[in-house]
Each structure stands twice: as C-alpha cells, then as structure tokens.
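Session log. Operator J.P. requested a structure for one protein chain; no other inputs attached. Running the standard single-chain path with token output.
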Amino acid sequence: MESDLSDTPLAGSKEHSGHLSEQDQEKRKAIQEACGRRDFATLVELATSTGGLLTDELRRQAWPILLGCDVGDDGRERKEANRSWRELPRHADEDQVRLDVDRAFVYYPKDESEQSLEIKKRQLSDLIVSTLRKHPVLSYFQSYHDVVQVLLLVLGDEHAAAAVPRISLLRLRDYMLPTISPARKHFELVSAIVKAADPELAAHIAEAENSFALSATHSLFAHDIQDYGDIARLYDFLLAHEPVMSIYLFAAVTISRRAELLEMPADQSDILTFMISKLPQTLNIDALALDTLALFRQQPPEKLEGFIWWRLSQYSVLKTSRQINSPHSLEEAELLCKKQIAQLRRDERMKRTAAALLRHQRPILSLSAALLVGALSLWLRKSGQDRFFWTLISSASHLFSKGQ
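Structure written below.
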C-alpha cells in the first residue's frame, strides 16, 4: 500500500497545538530514546503517565513496538504485510465492510475535503479486507473499522498494514470468532469486577444486561469516543497493557458514574443497560488510566468471584496475550484462533446433544425401561426362573387386588 496520508497533524493532537511545554519536551526525548533502545518497560511507563505518548509522530515510533510489529529478525511479518492480497479469495464479510467504511470518519479528521476522505476510506477498506483475506480464520464485526481507523490515522496506511493483523489476532481475536459467546464471557468479567470493587453498585445494576459493554470493548472505545486526541491518548494506555485492561477500563468508567447510576430505578433494566453503555463524552483519560490500573491491581482477574477467569477458554486472547513484551507471532496467534474455534464447535455440539437428550428424556426413559424388562425376561427364561418369577408377580397382583 502506498500512503496518501498527509503528514499534517490532526486536530486534537499535541502536534496540532504547535508547542510542547518544557516538561513535555523532556518527555518527548525520553520516548524517542526508549524507542531507539526498544526499551519496552520504559515505553509502557511513558505511555501510561500523564499525556501518554504526546504526539502522533512519537506514536508512529512507539505503537509498532508496543504491538510487536518488529518482532523477530527474519522480517516474515513485514513481508506478509506487503504481500499482495487482491488475488486472494474474497472474504465472506466484505459486503459488511463496505457498508461500515462508507460510514467511517464521522467525528475525525475534521475539515477534510471530500477527495481526502475518499482516499482515507479506500485505505481503510484495503487495510480491513487485506487482513481478512490473509487471515480468513477471522470474522469481521461491526465497529472493527473504528479500531482500524485509529491505526490508519496515527500510523499511516503503510505501517498500519503491519499493525492491523497484530491487533486483530493478539488483542481482538475473541471478538473475531464465528459466534459472540466468547465475548459474552468478557461482559461477565466486567460485572464481576464491578461487584468485587463496589458491591452496592453491582447489586443496583444487576438487572441490566451485561451486554452494555459490547460497543466499547469491541472497538477498544473507538466507537464511543468522539475526540481524536482522547482516543489516540487512550490507545497509548491500552496498547501498553495486556488486552484484559480494556475490560477493567470499562469497569472503572462504570464505577466512576456511581452516583448517576444509583439515582436510576434498579428495576428499569432497559434504561440501565442503555445508560451504562453510553460513555460520558468528557473523559479525563489520564485519571481514568490510573483508576483502571489501581482497579486491576486491587481486583486481579484470577481472584474474581465465581471463578469467572478460570471459566474462560485457555485459548482466549485475554489469557494467551498476557505477556505483551514477548508476543506471539501471527502464525502462533492464528493457530490459537483455530484451536479456539474448534473448541467452540465442540461446545456447541455438546449443548445441542444435551438439549436433544432433555427433549427426548421421557421417550428415552421408557425405551430404557422396556429394554431392561426384556433383558430381565430373557435372563429368567434362560436360568429357568421365569415360572417362579411370574408366579410371584401373579400372587402379588392378586393380593393387591383384594386389598383394593
């Protein structure tokens, strides 16, 4: 892909403001040095601290490192990113991709010409379709284009071509499976975290559908946050931490709205679900990042009530991508995806079998009883005990009739 993106910073980034404070200048130097050394731990600390990675120029250096785009010395993933995809078989979800791309770039970038937006939409479509064709094991979901849009605007299409497959297979994989059931486990995690941290609030919103986290967690908040500077800053934080941090982030946002939610009637589940799902338009990302980290440390996933963490598939991206400083290759991640899909299909077959057994429980019991009686009769006849047995049954029946 050839980049047609302008180097002009987008409104909302610190580059656009035209001036960095002396403190930010020092931080800028620290980020550049950490990128030069490939110092992952320092980058995580800088991305989490106030202001995050500051500018898109710095993000273009840091995000590929945080995503593991430069992993390995043989350059296989870079070659894969540059490999032609147009001749590959069409992915089943491409019609939906086209519909979603047509609705992209609503909130940012601002003041773009129609021609410029058309170029970006074409690049966005190419990034998504190329990823799906090269990794057909993945299924597209609505709001995926919001994630890819952020990567495109920050990194440009050339660097995003390597980043999109990695964020898909190593962070969003549970949402890109044939069914939504693994994602539902993520929603249960949100409820468990809120319950552990604030039992009163959890009890109050218990009637709400836990699918309230669907939009935000699927899109890593890109579908809900309308300010470009905020979403870029938030991605600094999310990419610097393991995938489960986005689940804790939604829980932290929910807890921060405690007073507002407690004022709502607890028995109005539809209203509660709607209100929780709609994020506040004004978010203090720096404070929220610190609150999320504190919540994660106070209520680690392994200790949540109900063994919710242990009920997650061992192939869930929340478990397999915990060590982000030593990430899997795309090939390894795709293999995990295939194993997770196979496990899902086994689980679905077991559920269908259990449902069928439940539906036919009475006929099966009747058949089992008939077979048992038949087997008993055969044994009695062969053993010569049948006459005695039926005499005994006849006597018992006669006595029972007299008693009536």
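Operator note: Residues 80 and 244 are 27 Å apart (CA to CA).
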